[in-house]
Amino acid sequence: MRATLKGTSYFKENRGEMISFIVKKLAVETKEAEELFELGVKVFSSNGRISDEGLSVLWRQRDPKRQLPIKPSDVVDWSFLPTKLE
Question: What is the pLDDT of residues 29-67, one digit of tens each?
Fold first, then answer.
C-alpha cells in the first residue's frame, strides 16, 4: 500500500514526465495524455482514497447505461488505509 501511495505522489509531482510516459505507453497524442493525467490527478488522492465523485466517473465510464445510484460506502471499505502518507 505504501508503494502505491508513493507512486501516486510521484505521479502528481512529476507532470511532464508522467505525460511523456502516458504518450509512450498508451500510444496517444500529447493532448490526450494531458487529459488522462488531469483525470488521474482528480481521481487519486494523496491518501489512496478515490473520491465519491471519482468513483462515480469510473462507474459511469464502465457502465453508462446503469441507472441506479451507487453509494461508495456500499462497495468500498477505506478503513485499512492510513490517514496520512508516511
Answer: 999 999 999 988 887 777 777 777 777 777 777 777 776
Together in a domain, 54 and 41: no
Which of helix, strand or coil describes residue 27?
A: coil
Contact 81, 48 (CB under 8 A): yes
Give the whole-angstrom CA distance, residue 80 versus residue 83: 9
Query: Same domain for 33 and 75?
Result: no
Instruction: Confirm whether pTM is higher than 0.85.
Output: no
> Vertex 28, ends 26 and 63: CA angle to 5°?
70
Helix (H) or strand (E) holding 13: helix 2-13
Strand extents, DSSP E, the chain: none
